[in-house]
Amino acid sequence: MPEPNATAATEVKEEKSLIDGGEVEAGKEKSATQTPEEIAAAKQTQEAEEKRLLEAKDEDLSAEDKEKKAGIVKTKEEKRLLEAKDEDLSAEDKVKKAALIKAQDDAKKAAQGKGAPDKYADFTVPEGIAVNQPMLEEFKTLAKELDLTQEKAQKLVDFQAKYVKGVDASLLKTFNETLTTWKKETVQELGADYKKELVYAGRAIDKFGTPELRQLLNQTGVGNHKELVKFFVKIGKTVSEDTFVDGKNKTGKKSDAELFYGDSMKEK
């Protein structure tokens, strides 16, 4: 079944947070509507995933990936048989094609009639929505128990897909509004010279951070929160004033530990 937070249409794109030199642009939100570029990107991602699964050896795949691979192979094979001309098929393939067509016809007849079919045909879901295969199998079992026709079962799938899109759009809207609020609060807290203050925060990240930390701050948006920004600003200012007079330290240079944790980490 389609899952919340699994649509390509509402993926949150990574953008630089304030702490990483991002722009304020308060009130500007990411769109929850899928653009043609995003549709193309989702399709490209899906094709890349299919290629990975098809080229991988079964012994190198997890049980879940093996199931996905089997589904891809089955779909591609059915498409090949249905689109091919009979004269281009072998005797064995003709038999397979005839059986496939019969199964589809039976499914259509079952959908038009009363009661569940012996086996449900593949359900359709909107492009860009991921399907939880194990849950889908559970749904088929439940639909069978409820004696739902193919058409009625499909309507439930459609409703679930619509619900997923609505949930993801709502979550994305809330996320964007939260980031906008954080940015406004941070800028207000740092004052008119907030850009200069953010330079200090950037220095702290450059000295003590890692690419993974920078990515985390950007992806989660927490790099826009005023408390975290102020924390890194203080560290950055300490880095900029990293000399002091101390009889035990003739060079006057503080260690990284002292810069980050304060006097409690001075070398004894």
Describe this structure in words.
- With 268 residues, this protein is mainly alpha-helical.
- The protein folds into two domains: 2-16 and 30-167, no CATH class; 173-265, no CATH class.
- The protein contains nine helices and two strands; from the N terminus they run βαααβαααααα.
- Strands 1-2 form a two-stranded antiparallel ribbon.
- The longest helix is centred in the middle third of the chain and has 41 residues, at 150-190.
- It is elongated, with a radius of gyration of 28 Å.
- It starts with a strand and ends in a 7-residue tail after the last helix.
Helix content: 55-70%
SSE order: EHHHEHHHHHH
Detail the poorly predicted runs: 5-12, 243-252, 255-268
* Rough outline: elongated
Taking strands numbered 1, 2, ... along the chain, how are they ordered across the largest sheet?
A: 1-2
Major sheet details: 2 strands, antiparallel
What is the end-to-end distance? 62 Å
Strand content: under 5%
What is the typical, i.e. mean, pLDDT? 77
Strand element count: 2
Helical region count? Answer: 9
Q: Report the C-alpha radius of gyration, rounded.
A: 28 Å
